[in-house]
## 1
Amino acid sequence: MADRYLTVAQVAELLGTTERFPRRLIAERRIVFVKVGRHVRIPESALDAFIDANTVQPIGDRRSSLRRAA
């Protein structure tokens, strides 16, 4: 199955940010991108990998891990 290539505007919309954020990710080389002439495209799989790498999992039930004072 072929990967979809997204514009900066599409990536910003999917992330719920302005276009400045994906452009900063590209400038800092924090996400994979493809240059087609002067156009920049981000593979959908690269966006998924970026989201997975930056997802923080919850710790769990904090009440059970707290000790009671004596």
## 2
Amino acid sequence: MALRDLTGAVDFAVLNGMTGGDDAVNEEVLGLFVNQAGLWSVMLDPKVEGWRDGVHTIRGAAAGIGARDLAAICAEAEAVDQKLAAPAVERVRDALQAALADVAAYRHELMLRGLKG
């Protein structure tokens, strides 16, 4: 299997451009993204004070790995009125899950390549 995504939620060419295609650096950056997602996703609830901070942080992390759709959905959510926050945050959660699925598949392939090498 070639290094690829599952859903197209992440453009890994962005990541590779940033890291020079270094598998170890890619793994480190993707690991940081997964950690950021775990830390900040607990704030993805419009009833939680500071939910916009969580969305904003995920937005930056997403842009850094090439998850453009997630970054755009986060930007939209940051700008919504509080009354519309629930559906906006739900879209962020869905887009985050798609990005995390692609990241998991990519990291798995990196691990397999490392075992073969």
## 3
Amino acid sequence: MPYVFLFLAIISEVMGTTALTASNQFTKLGPSIVTVVGYGLAFYFFSFSLKAIPVGVAYAIWGGVGIVLVTLIGFFYFKQRLDWPALAGIGLIVAGVLVMQLFSKTVSH
């Protein structure tokens, strides 16, 4: 169940971040509300995941998966392009999360 809460936290944070971009610096009410609610739910769900997942591991997964999802949304929805060094950096973040998940004895499977 902790990974379900972590997944919900990630999705909520990605929704909040996407809405933050669409809020135009909080000048649009709808996206601004989605931003605040999304981040609130993200921290709420994240707190439940921390009952069973070490905070460093949970935060690394949240950050890594969130970065990839926000990057994909930015690419397809906002037409934002990244150069090769940025993509390589994101790849290294994903690799780090995978190493933790696959090889660390700290991570509960």
